Amino acid sequence: MKLLKSKNSGNGFGYVKLKIESEDDIWELYNLILSGDSVRSITYRKTHKENTSGAVSVKVHKLVMTIIVKNTDYGGQTLRVSGFNAIDNEYVKMGQHHTMELRVGSELILYKRSWDWLARTRLEESCKKKIGAGDDILILLIGNGVANMFLVSSQKTVNLFTVNHNITRGQNNNHPYKESKNKFFQMITQNLISHLNFEDLDNIILGGPGFYKNDFFKYLMDSDNQKNKDLTGILKNKRHVFIIASTSSVFQSSIDEILLNKDFQEKLKDTKAFQQVKLIQHFQYLLATNPDLVCYGLKNTENALESNAIETLMVSDTLIRSDSLKIRSKLANITAMNNNLGGKTCVFSSTHNSGKTLENMSGIAAILRFPVDHLQDYEADDSNQGWETGDERGKDGQDEDFDWFKKEKDEIKKHQQSQQDDNCIEKQLQQVSMGDDHFLTNLKNDKEINDISSDN
């Protein structure tokens, strides 16, 4: 992501002008643009006009709009940002709902009323990262009639393609078996060619249970295989492009088996996905062997932080995207305080297996420098308490909403907005209409930052 310009008035207020340079940037923006923020970019709006004969004509207008964000929808190659128009224009009245679509090449202005430590850090890291920086891991898992291709980047794990084909039972010299197996391999190869540029690849980890991965490698290297002649020619000069590994399955759950394989750690040690898997593995090891040196759940984490005992704080990005202002505010305070005290903070992607493991432990956990005695006073049921309700309890003394995290994830998936956030957006619209929102109203008049272009 390219930072074109930034303005900050102090106290956390300010805005940045950005250009999306890769699909990874779209994921970063998905975690950066939150409910209540404002986004200004080129967008399109349909208008309908009825002529004298009653026929309705539709015209699409290209314009620059500023919307106060209600929710976002990540689509891989695009990010849909929905909200309410903050600045009147010829086609959309202030307060009307609109959805803009951001993609590679788009420029935008992102305005936040508070650029907390998490937001500033995420922006800085995403703007520093170079395109094709080599942090991506390609894993092809092949089994009996099933193949899955995964791209594991620093931000997410993506299933690039899946191939299913029924392989006839038999031995290698059995014609129907050999024919159906070759058909399966041909389907995989066609998908590889359509999804990847082999000239630029360093390597692909080829894994799976049994012998199919080895047979597929032999199939690719077969000089008599005329259907793959061009690909075979490339691979002849780059035989090292495939690294063969054994896994228990062909599904995403087996990715961690590869990342933790000692044979590959030298190649993968600089990738963020590997580092996060190792961190979770270390946490689980301490939890089993020396539980006084770890904690999880909001209550225990806050108490460990107050004692300056946190060495590494681990946070799920699902929490960062929460629609709840209370959760985001509390998380921002925790991460900022941890940074000020010299602790490390690691944000885990919810699409990685390591991130899913963290989610199952409430979404927040920590490795400690030293034991904190009073952490044992908090029971397991209390680990998720405090995000929304503080220290409030039910009549029986139990946390009434200890399953908040599951509910919060469901709300995020459905893009439901809390009433408090709706009131916040409505208040922002009122401020803009009355001329009280200094930043949003000045965006329209700021010629230097208002010049937005798009490569689309």
UniProtKB/TrEMBL annotation:
<dbReference type="GO" id="GO:0070966">
    <property type="term" value="P:nuclear-transcribed mRNA catabolic process, no-go decay"/>
</dbReference>
<dbReference type="InterPro" id="IPR004405">
    <property type="entry name" value="TF_pelota"/>
</dbReference>
<dbReference type="Pfam" id="PF03465">
    <property type="entry name" value="eRF1_3"/>
</dbReference>
<dbReference type="InterPro" id="IPR029064">
    <property type="entry name" value="Ribosomal_eL30-like_sf"/>
</dbReference>
<comment type="similarity">
    <text>Belongs to the eukaryotic release factor 1 family. Pelota subfamily.</text>
</comment>
<dbReference type="Pfam" id="PF03464">
    <property type="entry name" value="eRF1_2"/>
</dbReference>
<dbReference type="GO" id="GO:0070481">
    <property type="term" value="P:nuclear-transcribed mRNA catabolic process, non-stop decay"/>
</dbReference>
<feature type="domain" description="eRF1/Pelota-like N-terminal">
    <location>
        <begin position="1"/>
        <end position="128"/>
    </location>
</feature>
<dbReference type="Pfam" id="PF26356">
    <property type="entry name" value="Pelota_N"/>
</dbReference>
<keyword id="KW-0479">Metal-binding</keyword>
<dbReference type="GO" id="GO:0070651">
    <property type="term" value="P:nonfunctional rRNA decay"/>
</dbReference>
<dbReference type="GO" id="GO:0032790">
    <property type="term" value="P:ribosome disassembly"/>
</dbReference>
<dbReference type="InterPro" id="IPR005141">
    <property type="entry name" value="eRF1_2"/>
</dbReference>
<keyword id="KW-0963">Cytoplasm</keyword>
<dbReference type="InterPro" id="IPR005140">
    <property type="entry name" value="eRF1_Pelota-like_N"/>
</dbReference>
<dbReference type="InterPro" id="IPR058547">
    <property type="entry name" value="Pelota_N"/>
</dbReference>
<dbReference type="InterPro" id="IPR005142">
    <property type="entry name" value="eRF1_3"/>
</dbReference>
<dbReference type="GO" id="GO:0071025">
    <property type="term" value="P:RNA surveillance"/>
</dbReference>
<dbReference type="GO" id="GO:0046872">
    <property type="term" value="F:metal ion binding"/>
</dbReference>
<dbReference type="GO" id="GO:0005737">
    <property type="term" value="C:cytoplasm"/>
</dbReference>
<protein>
    <recommendedName>
        <fullName>Eukaryotic peptide chain release factor subunit 1</fullName>
    </recommendedName>
</protein>
<dbReference type="InterPro" id="IPR042226">
    <property type="entry name" value="eFR1_2_sf"/>
</dbReference>
<dbReference type="InterPro" id="IPR038069">
    <property type="entry name" value="Pelota/DOM34_N"/>
</dbReference>
<feature type="region of interest" description="Disordered">
    <location>
        <begin position="380"/>
        <end position="400"/>
    </location>
</feature>
<feature type="compositionally biased region" description="Basic and acidic residues">
    <location>
        <begin position="390"/>
        <end position="400"/>
    </location>
</feature>
